[in-house]
Amino acid sequence: MKRRQFLRQSGLAAAGMLTLQLPRLGFGKQPYHGVINPEHNIPANKSIDPAWVRSLYERGKPTTYTRQQNELKYIGMPAGGLHAGTVYLGGDGRLWLWSIYNDEREGVDPKSVWWHDGNSEREIRNRDGASYLEPAIAANKRVLEQGFAILVKQGNQTWLKELREEDWEQVTFEATYPTATIRFRDPRMPVEVTMRAGGIFIPLDADNSALPATVFDISTRNITAQPLELSICGWLENGARKLTGKPSEGFKRNTGMATESGILSSFQYAAAGKGNYPDDGTTCIACISDNVRLNTNADVWPVREGVFAAGQSTADKPADEKLVAAVSTAPSTVQGGKEVQVQYVLSWHFNHPLKKVAKIKDAEEGYYYGSRFQHAGEVAIYIRRHFRELWGATLQWRETFYNSTLPYWFLERTFLNIGSLATANTYRFKSGRFWGWEGVNTCEGTCTHVWQYAQAAGRIFPSLERDTRQRTDLGIAMEQNGGIIFRAEYENRPAIDGQAGAILRIYREHLMSGDNNFLTANWPRIKQAVLFMLAQDKNNDGMTDTPMENTLDAVWEGEIAWIVGLCIAAAKAAQLMAEEMNDSAFAGKCREYVEKGGANMSAHLFNGEYFIHRPDPVQGRRKLGSYNTCHIDQVYGQSWAWQVGLGRLWNKEQTLSALRALWKYNFTTDVGPYIRTHHGGRPYALEGEAGMIMNTNPHNEAKPYGEDVTWQLGYFHECMSGFEHQVASHMMAEGMTDEALILTRAIHDRYHGAKRNPFNEIECSDHYARAMASYGTFITACGYEYHGPKGEMKFKPAFGARDFRAPFTSAEGWGTFSQHLTKERSTHSITVKYGSLKLNKLTLDVRGTGALKKNKVRIGNKTLDVSWKQQEDQLHISFPATIRVAANETLTIESTT
What we know:
By secondary structure, this protein is of the alpha+beta class. A 10-stranded antiparallel β-sheet has the order 1-9-10-11-12-21-16-15-14-18.
């Protein structure tokens, strides 16, 4: 189905709303029965407490949800590997959802709910925001029996408690993706338990980050002065054929892997051969310790001391009964004040692609992890044998990312959306091809005009994005004329914003490469894609005006600022790539387009306050469009430019004016009054919540959206977080830091654990890809620019510059950047924690420091010869020969006046 077929198959018949019965495929023309021209009612004065705004800049502490505040029931942090299904880590450390069985239904919790939008009650499907209105609850989605328990003996007392919310007086969840920290406290217990859990997650290592497994790292501290005896038990139900297994077909089997401290769970068929069932596979639980007891047939209803004992090496049960594997540590003595640490791995293996992706030939042979491992036991063994390397790097990234001077809440919100890659929203097939929905099981084809907003994957797992550009955008999806079909196998035409976004992403993927090979190998087809985009400017004024599909699911006529600007940005990226390829003729062609387009955009698409949609001279306003209204993406091209170092593309003051207009006319601290009077939008923000409306009519024009208003107008009245994130990233880059932080915090608060799952930003279904635009705000907060092949890096923090520290990623390594500035001295350092960093040039921030006279540059104790110059508030360091900073090395630049 095409993306977000807005309220399309809902069978709605209520008055005053969209009464749609549309075909399953294709966009039929439908009337809009909402209120078309209500008064603009977003107050210009936001009345925000200045003290609260100042608090947004504070470092603070990790966002912590608690049992006492009833904040744990919705929490579902993606806790498996990339593209390995959706397994959620709950607020009390138990796993839930278990969407590993190749479920064909939309969303993590497919359902329809009813909502009154102020005009009428209407049915809302999963793709239209059902999960926002009624989030999934962990207790209702524990598909597999799973958990941990501790057995404590001290003197003549014995305590047996499960690590779950009901058994402890205090349970807290620290939301620091990719690993969370759950703490269990009870004044009646002589121990405190701390659990760190999540999937293997190592930036730049897409293979090891895609292991279908969750790691639990459990530390138990004796908080008394006396010694005690401790044992820990973990268990996992046999998940093979969990949903479809029948006793007539075979039986469940648990097999102990004594040398690997684990138990493999499988389904044994009674007769030769087996069907192609989506839940046909294996699960496994293993402990990293060698001194364990394996119980292949554990009784955990409830957990008793006997569960901790060893059992038979193999156990079988009928297909319709539960069979649980338990692995326990042998009792150990823990002295007063000391702690003991144990780690578990829970893995799964269900190598059956969805029928819904049958058009993709790459899907026929299964998933990428299926090509690496034959069953879940092999996954667990691999992790167990490389545990220090894999889990160590995961924890090192978590420490590196959050060891920053940026606010914890800001780091969390801008990063956590990359967890969408660790859900059933994405796949990686045996061929290595990456593929994604827009939202879980909704709107297929790694849609170019949605995924182009997502900035996270290109910086954290650039190899996936490079392969997608080369294999799909420039390969499977490319037409002979250079057009890129925006859903590859699932469409037959390009989308203009997706085309421009693909070119910009190609440039980003080049920047995140260690050499020029990606650009060189793909240059002929890149040129084709660019030429197709340039050809959509029919009157040769640098402003595309060919009617084509866009991300709001319509074909708009005329010259549309956000599409014009996006194409200008793409042409600028193409110009820079052409210059690197020594293709001066093509670089000149692109430069002319950029200069002409930028000048004409400023002259003709700026209404004195913000950028607009100029109607087609023939069609006029006959069709749906944004016209003279205030549209959220109006300067999106410049927003993209700051992500990839393109510089200023058109008039600065006009751009700032447009952003201020968005703040004035589109941002509201309470969307309630707006959605009560502007009907038809989906509920991605509710009464009492803040957000930025997609498109508003600040001048109360009659028929502001055209003469033929269709169902797509509903989008204009929504708050979609992916669009909000891109605006926040742009505001951050332009010095509007208060507004950027407030907008980001509005999203953060909409997804507070007391109301819904903090890790699931929803648009068209769950874990929507566009929300990964949030990482762009982190990029602009750091003022980060990088060119891997040239070995160039730049930092200019947007706030907190005098004492600043933040993580960075590059083509071949990642680590920490820091700076300390005074009037007399500036100190900058780059510490590589993983891989290495190639450098030829650094551009650093020296705001507030006087005229510099001396510079000392060194790696460790080795002083380097460099050339340098100071230009106003920037310090340029050039190395006479390429340097490479290795893991655990620090490059330091000390400058004095």
